[in-house]
Design brief:
There is one protein chain. By secondary structure, this protein is α/β, with parallel strands linked by helices. It has a single domain, classed as Hexapeptide repeat proteins (UDP N-Acetylglucosamine Acyltransferase, domain 1), CATH 2.160.10.10. It has a seven-stranded mixed sheet with strand order 1-4-7-14-17-19-20, with no helix packed on it. A five-stranded parallel sheet has the order 2-5-8-15-18. It has a four-stranded parallel sheet with strand order 3-6-13-16, with no helix packed on it. The chain is globular.
Amino acid sequence: MLAGKLYNPADPELVALREHAGDLCTRFNSQPRGDHRARNAILDELLPRHGADLDVMGPIFFDYGCHTTIGDRVFANFNFTVLDCAPVTIGDDVLFGPNVSLLPPMHPLRWQDRNVRKHVDGSTYDYEYGRPIVIGPNCWFGGNVTVLGGVTIGEGCVIGAGTVVTHDIPPHTVAVGNPAHVLREITEADASALQDYAR
């Protein structure tokens, strides 16, 4: 699965990993917002490869959690969804608006290859494959952004609200739309006129 090859998601080992991650997400989502100790302990178990000062609003939804690497000082707003059947790598100082989805899973294009099948014991399965997602440091994602598998987003990008990212985005650019297109480069001219007041 992690190598990007076709795999059977009904494999018992994978089912057990997803159920464990799902239970951890449910526990996190049910904790009071102010119970930081309990919430952080759950995140430590769900996301063993996260950096310092992870700030997650919840609810959250991870397929595995253990296949996601998160840098320092990352913030995720409401309804952060990561279907990490392939490696997902998030750099330092990344901000995710509400309803952001990172979606590595892929299905075959031909229905003959994609449709659900039956084992001789009557259980069902299908074939999937995954493509990794890499997000560089210092990025900001607006609300309702979807990032598809196989995408690398360069350092310092701003991804506008509602964008669907289907291909790589170069560093230090603003990307918007469905599918995403680069609107422009971010330059020194974009420095905030109020930056002195933010200290």
